[in-house]
Design goal:
This protein is mainly α. It has four helices and two strands, in the order H-H-H-E-E-H.
Length: 198
């Protein structure tokens, strides 16, 4: 979404940040005076960063607001669609499972007749094929296919090996910073730069 006006507006910012990047690369801090100059440079860079953020938000804020509005507008329709689809899916699967069970019982009866010598293999195969539910249902608008997939179910979390457990760092950080000791966790001091742009 690059426009000539936007490019023109960003030209001074781009020039400033390019100069700042070169100066930052060449920066050497060996004295208190160097430290003061570097601190001033950091504050100027942050000031340009603020300008970049403001210019970007002129574009992104209205877009994000429009996106939020569109999502909110369509959410009730999508909720109803999802619910309707879930209901029909569940009923189709329930029917298919009942048909599979019925076919299993019929197949057992046919196999019993073969074992008793009351039916030959060819006839049994025909009858089994006839009672086996189809995996595809053809309709005027398309087809619905049934597939068997493998689903992984977590039965007992306490039995999971350690390699499958992921620490909740947000919770750990919150509790540790509140002064609670947690085995295997330590709180350390770390220096960061927290300058304020005036």
């Amino acid at each position: 979404m690059e426009t000539p006006n936007l490019k023109k507006e960003l030209a001074p910012i781009e020039a400033n940040i390019s100069k700042a990047e070169l100066a930052a690369t060449a920066l050497v801090i060996k004295t208190d005076e160097d430290n003061t100059k570097a601190s001033e440079m950091l504050l100027k860079i942050r000031s340009v960063g603020k300008q970049i953020k403001e210019a970007k938000e002129k574009i992104t804020k209205p877009l994000n607001e429009a996106l939020r509005n569109a999502r909110n507008f369509f959410a009730p329709l999508e909720d109803k669609y999802i619910r309707a689809e879930q209901i029909v899916n569940a009923k189709l699967v329930e029917y298919k499972m009942a048909q599979d069970l019925k076919a299993l019982k019929e197949t057992a009866k046919i196999e019993a007749k073969v074992e008793a010598g009351k039916m030959n293999f060819e006839k049994a195969a025909e009858k089994i094929e006839a009672v086996t539910p189809k995996k595809t249902v053809e309709t005027k608008t398309g087809q619905v296919q049934y597939r068997t997939i493998k689903e992984v179910i977590l039965e007992d979390e306490s039995k999971l090996p350690r390699e499958y457990l992921v620490p909740d760092m947000v919770k750990i950080r919150k509790v540790a910073l509140a002064g609670v000791e947690i085995a295997g966790v330590k709180v350390v001091d770390k220096q960061i730069i927290a300058g304020v742009v005036r």
